[in-house]
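The data layer described in this paper is built around a simple, fixed record for each protein. We quote a single record here, exactly as it is kept in our systems:
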Amino acid sequence: MTFESTRAAEIRPGTVFIDDASEVAQLHGVGIQRFGDRFYAWGEDKRAGSAFTAVACYSSPDLAEWRFEGNSLVAGDGELAPDRVIERPKVLRRPDGAYVMFLHVDTGDYSFARVGYAISDNPVGPFRYLGSERPLGNVSRDIGVYQEGGVGYLLSEDRENGLHIYRLAPDHLSVEEVVATTLKDDQSHGYESPAMVRHDGLYYLFGSDLTGWSTNDNKVATATDLRGPWSSWEDIAPPGSATFDSQVSAVVPVGDGARPAFVYVGDRWLSDDLANSPCVWLPMEISGGRARISWVDEWRLEVARL
């Protein structure tokens, strides 16, 4: 396998991305995966505000220039009705080649609190919605996903009981067990908006405190085994910066031959103008049990093209 470095367009944290149709890319609460030479992103379409309309799909060679691929999932009836809350779309590719989308499915008062599943034979879709569950009976709000060796994991926020790491069933359409549950250092509750990566034998678990639309100092904990023990939580940005006024949505490995090796993908939510909420995407340094982001006005990702 050989790689060719290509110079990408600029990423400007704190702004919105404009897609190939000159529209604001709806990359909110986004999940990102790389398949072949392109990154695929699935975001909450917020042009109708908090009402559910669609999960929008985009692709990019460099995380900077985005092409609208279409809507992967659209509003319908039942759990996908326009009065429902559909958030945090994340996608994993199963070993058999199918693509599974995971969703936070809720009602307007956030009492439903379930994880939803949809499936497609390609990353763009359309995805076929299969239904939802409370994993092992637990409430599920903000979610993230992780995959290693073909085994999938669901990261799910359960408020009072903690942030759960679940091992998915082989078909990725249900959970089989709780691998670990983490709480804040003061044991008061778990973190939300989870993300996880592995680097140099360590797992890095990211999360945001429960402060609604307001931002806070997002944290990271580490472990050599998914079952723990997990370390104390540490800031990923300068203390008091509220993670540069953002909330983690994903941490994206960008592959061999690329610098930086990880990208922090965050949202700066505008509660009265959700569709134009800016993206705060920054290079992330991960090494020796520490994960850090620093502010830069603009930057480029040197992509290793397969």
Q: What stands out?
A: The chain has one domain: 10-299. Residues 1-5 have pLDDT under 50 and may be disordered. Helices lie at 242-245.
